[in-house]
């Protein structure tokens, strides 16, 4: 039943791609030659482009399958889906043009129509996929085609995995229980205890487990290899929650040394030309944002001044940036001028009484951070990167959090991978460090763009913004 539903879902996704892509062709022809918006041309009737549609129907399944877009992963971020569609459909468009030119020697499509088709095709296919995946999520949320999940572990990592799954029923997972390392963990288990790790071979068939997630950082190498080998033999999907493993050996690359496989611990991805690319993105992005938001920022500055006559508009605070060097971070002042006179450096809290009237609103939507685009423009910060902390807190964290100092190998950012994943403010510094290190070691221009696009939505929905 489950396999049949998976096949139906793949077929539905492929049909959605074909229908939306050909709908884009019809709409593009209408815009270019029928609507009158760009001019009429009787020499290009719709039938002259039907061949392109036929080739497109053959090319799309092949190209999209090569890009692994017909793998039914339980969760794909919309921006990742858009990037996949952009890449695959761009190649499809080029392929359709080349094949059409080879088949029909007098083939001479309107270049403007091809440009319109390319843009509409990406938009239409992406929209069709969003609708298809939304329907699939509804089906999964109702318990159809659910995956029975077993968690190996009972600590904080296992609890986090179980909580995320229970709060996202659309993923279609059903936790059946967990395995523990010793009886001392039984009371802390986030799900029914089905036995110990040694009972894995009996538990999987007895509870018809489809997927295993290992969330036990203390698991030995031998135990992990044994679990992976058994699950692969039983055709059970297995995933490993990295947790401390990622923090201690974050990111590995494989190297073939004359047939000998080696693992290389990845360093920062921002080296060589990547530094120039990122800096160019920072300059262009920060300058554009400062120009566009100049008037709103002026209004905010006026409101800050009027709401608290006894303080300055800007709050300048020392933060730790690239290579541990301090810099002066700019913010709109959102708290009283004497906010830390008595307490010293402390985290902001819910309904913090130190906030000014306008400050509460600024902090809720992260508008107090807007002056930091000036820090970006002059090179002290980046648009995206680990959020900078004050020296007082950095000294504490580097003593207690493994590899915390490594997050300072890159410039601090206005937003970051941890922030768009809900880890902002007074949240787990260990988990934030894990996300920051992953970002530092896996940077790409597209990752920065994706984080920037997700930031406004994260700021609106963030419950830790206070």
Structure description:
The chain has helices at residues 2-34, 50-66, 78-103, 111-141, 156-166, 200-206, 221-233, 243-248, 273-292, 294-307, 357-364, 372-377, 391-400, 417-420, 429-441, 445-461, and strands spanning 147-152, 173-180, 193-196, 211-214, 237-240, 252-257, 260-265, 314-320, 326-332, 382-384, 413-415. It is built from 16 helices and eleven strands. With 466 residues, it is an alpha/beta fold. It folds into three domains: 2-141, no CATH class; 147-241, Rossmann fold (3-Layer(aba) Sandwich), CATH 3.40.50.20; 273-461, no CATH class. Strand 1 (147-152), helix 5 and strand 2 form a beta-alpha-beta unit. The protein has a five-stranded parallel beta sheet, sandwiched between helices. Strands 6-7 form a two-stranded antiparallel sheet. A two-stranded antiparallel sheet has the order 8-9.
Question: How is this fold's topology laid out?
Answer:
Layout: H1 2-34, H2 50-66, H3 78-103, H4 111-141, E1 147-152, H5 156-166, E2 173-180, E3 193-196, H6 200-206, E4 211-214, H7 221-233, E5 237-240, H8 243-248, E6 252-257, E7 260-265, H9 273-292, H10 294-307, E8 314-320, E9 326-332, H11 357-364, H12 372-377, E10 382-384, H13 391-400, E11 413-415, H14 417-420, H15 429-441, H16 445-461
Parallel strand pairs: 1-2, 1-4, 2-3, 4-5, 10-11
Antiparallel strand pairs: 6-7, 8-9
Helix pairs in contact: 1-2, 1-4, 2-3, 3-4
Q: What are the key terms here?
A:
11 strands, alpha/beta, 3 domains, 16 helices, 466 residues, single chain, two-stranded antiparallel ribbon, Rossmann fold
């Amino acid at each position: 039943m489950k396999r049949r539903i998976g096949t139906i879902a793949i077929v539905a996704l492929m049909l959605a791609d074909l229908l939306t892509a050909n709908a884009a062709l019809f709409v593009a022809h209408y815009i270019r030659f029928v609507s009158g918006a760009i001019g009429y041309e009787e020499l290009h009737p719709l039938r002259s482009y039907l061949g392109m549609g036929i080739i497109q129907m053959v090319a799309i399944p092949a190209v999209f399958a090569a890009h692994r877009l017909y793998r039914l992963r339980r969760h794909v971020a919309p921006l990742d889906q858009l990037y996949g569609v952009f890449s695959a459909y761009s190649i499809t468009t080029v392929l359709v043009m080349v094949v059409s030119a080879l088949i029909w020697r007098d083939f001479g499509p309107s270049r403007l129509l091809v440009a319109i088709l390319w843009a509409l095709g990406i938009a239409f296919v992406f929209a069709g996929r969003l609708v298809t995946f939304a329907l699939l999520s509804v089906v999964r949320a109702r318990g159809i085609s659910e995956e029975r999940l077993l968690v190996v572990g009972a600590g904080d990592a296992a609890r986090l995995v179980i909580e995320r799954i229970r709060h996202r029923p659309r993923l279609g997972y059903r936790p059946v229980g967990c395995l523990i390392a010793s009886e001392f963990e039984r009371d802390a288990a986030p799900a029914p205890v089905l036995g110990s790790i040694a009972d894995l071979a009996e538990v999987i068939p007895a509870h018809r487990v489809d997927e295993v997630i290992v969330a036990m950082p203390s698991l030995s190498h031998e135990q992990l290899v044994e679990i992976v080998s058994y699950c692969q033999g039983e055709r059970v999907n297995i995933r490993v929650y990295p947790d401390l493993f990622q923090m201690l050996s974050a990111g590995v690359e494989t190297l073939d040394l004359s047939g000998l496989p080696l693992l290389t611990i990845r360093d920062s991805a921002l080296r060589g030309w990547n530094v120039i690319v990122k800096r160019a993105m920072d300059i262009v992005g920060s300058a554009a944002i400062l120009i566009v938001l100049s008037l709103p920022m002026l209004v905010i500055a006026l409101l800050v001044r009027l709401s608290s006559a006894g303080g300055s508009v800007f709050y300048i605070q020392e933060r730790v940036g690239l290579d541990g060097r301090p810099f002066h971070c700019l913010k709109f002042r959102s708290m009283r001028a004497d906010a830390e006179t008595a307490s010293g450096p402390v985290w902001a809290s819910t309904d913090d009484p130190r906030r000014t009237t306008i400050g509460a609103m600024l902090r809720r939507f992260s508008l107090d951070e807007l002056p930091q685009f000036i820090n970006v423009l002059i090179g002290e910060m980046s648009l995206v990167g680990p959020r900078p902390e004050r020296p007082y807190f950095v000294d504490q964290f580097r003593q207690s959090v493994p590899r915390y100092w490594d997050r300072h190998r890159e410039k601090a950012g206005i937003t970051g991978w941890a922030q768009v994943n809900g880890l902002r403010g007074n949240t787990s510094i260990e988990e934030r460090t894990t996300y920051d290190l992953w970002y530092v070691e896996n940077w790409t221009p597209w990752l920065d763009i994706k984080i920037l696009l997700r930031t406004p939505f994260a700021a609106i929905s963030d419950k830790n913004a206070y």
